[in-house]
Write a structure and sequence with these properties.
By secondary structure, this protein is mostly helical. The protein contains 7 helices and 3 strands. A 3-stranded antiparallel β-sheet has the order 2-1-3. α4 crosses α7 and α5 packs antiparallel against α7. The radius of gyration is 19 Å and the shape is elongated. The two termini are 29 Å apart. It holds the Pfam family DUF1232. It comes from Abrus precatorius. Keywords: Membrane, Metal-binding, Transmembrane, Transmembrane helix, Zinc, Zinc-finger.
């Protein structure tokens, strides 16, 4: 699985090739400097909005190649600004709609992290993901339900769907906290 922007894509701010690419929580890619300039051009006390989809950007994740180049002073300066941005906006609580919109971004990155042996998730986070998955699977496949399918038919599946949604939201929140600590948290 690729950890960088699509091969033939361009930054939507400068319309050039990506320089120090960063992925926003809406899954769009930008040059690190470009998205920081978008933020600095607007209100410095609010997260900037994605130039493509207009969703608030609450987390910027630099790609792995950029992180390996942090010895370069220019790269270090931009990564420092991204770190500051994430420190300001990455730890703020978000609403349910924002969390649901962030699910594809976070779950895709988490799956990539699980499948790549070079990446390391903290053991506690990995264990919590597995425990939540096992408990959710037990509930979904067990014959005991809050809303039984046998009596209410298709409506009885709602509690199972709710449990699955809660599982995904919980796992995404765990992984978001890992990304926040890596790229801006303290």
């Amino acid at each position: 699985m690729e950890s960088g922007p699509p091969a033939n894509d361009l930054c939507s701010v400068c319309h050039g090739n990506f320089h120090i690419p960063c992925q926003a929580n809406c899954s769009h890619w930008f040059c690190g400097n470009c998205i920081v300039l978008v933020w600095q051009h607007g209100s410095g006390v609010q997260p900037c909005k994605c130039p493509l989809c207009r969703r608030p950007i609450t987390l910027l994740v630099p790609n792995d190649d950029s992180l390996r180049q942090r010895d370069d002073p220019e790269v270090a300066q931009i990564l420092s600004k991204i770190h500051t941005y994430n420190r300001f906006f990455g730890g703020n609580p978000t609403g349910l709609l924002q969390r649901i919109q962030d699910l594809p971004f976070l779950l895709r990155r988490l799956l990539r992290e699980f499948s790549d042996p070079r990446r390391s998730l903290p053991l506690v986070i990995r264990a919590r993901v597995y425990v939540a998955m096992i408990i959710s699977a037990i509930y979904v496949f067990s014959p005991i339900d809050i809303i039984p399918e046998g009596i209410l038919g298709i409506v009885g599946l709602l509690d199972d769907l709710l449990i699955v949604l809660i599982f995904f939201l919980h796992v995404a929140a765990l992984y978001r906290s890992v990304l926040y600590l890596r790229h801006g948290g303290s």
